[in-house]
């Protein structure tokens, strides 16, 4: 009987959810870090202190960089990110407040004269949705 339970036990345990995968594209400089924040509601969007998840990824090459958030269950999310090329811990801007370092958001939302908002960046993620791709660009 014990042997039968050991054999059947894995059948009753669901596999772990794979989590949310994000691929950052168009990385043009192999230095600095990419700061990523994942939000789960409009009220906390663009407030990094209240992000559902966040990471700082070292950039060691050009092209693409993948990131996983295995702790996130399926749901509605929005992502904002920037490539801190000079490693000063912030998104640099010019005198008009326009970013001078590459940045991006989910759905590749890129309004020109303001930051992307929750409605433009939110997406529904399911376990079988595949990776989210975000293109990093300068203004």
Describe this structure in words.
The protein is mainly beta. It has one domain. Helix content is about 10%, strand content about 35%. It is built from two helices and eight strands, in the order αββββββαββ. It has helices at about 1-10, 120, and strands spanning about 20-25, 35-40, 55-60, 65-70, 75-85, 105, 125, 130-135. Strands 2, 3, 5, 6 and 7 form a five-stranded antiparallel sheet that branches. Strands 4-1-8 form a three-stranded mixed sheet, with no helix packed on it. The radius of gyration is 18 Å and the shape is globular.
Please give the radius of gyration in angstroms. 18 Å
Task: Calculate the mean pLDDT score and round it.
Answer: 90
Report the portion of residues in β strands: 25-35%
Number of helices: 2
- Please write the string of helix (H) and strand (E) elements: HEEEEEEHEE
Count of DSSP E strands? 8
Derived from helix and strand composition plus strand pairing, the structural class reads mainly beta
- What characteristic shape results from the CA principal axes? globular
For this entry, what is the oligomeric state of its chains?
single chain
Please bin the fraction of helical residues.
10-25%
Count of distinct structural domains: 1
Largest sheet: 5 strands, antiparallel
Q: Determine the N-to-C terminus distance.
A: 66 Å
Poorly predicted residue ranges: none
């Amino acid at each position: 009987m014990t042997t039968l339970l050991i054999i059947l036990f894995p059948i009753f345990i669901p596999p772990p959810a794979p989590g949310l995968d994000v691929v950052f594209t168009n990385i043009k400089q192999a230095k600095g870090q990419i700061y990523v924040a994942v939000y789960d509601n409009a009220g906390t969007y663009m407030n990094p202190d209240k992000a559902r998840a966040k990471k700082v990824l070292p950039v060691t090459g050009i092209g693409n960089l993948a990131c996983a958030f295995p702790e996130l269950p399926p749901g509605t999310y929005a992502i904002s990110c920037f490539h801190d090329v000079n490693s000063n811990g912030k998104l640099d801007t010019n005198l008009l407040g326009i970013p001078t370092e590459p940045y991006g958001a989910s759905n590749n939302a890129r309004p020109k004269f303001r930051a992307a908002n929750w409605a433009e960046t939110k997406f529904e993620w399911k376990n079988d949705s595949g990776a989210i791709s975000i293109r990093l660009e300068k203004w």
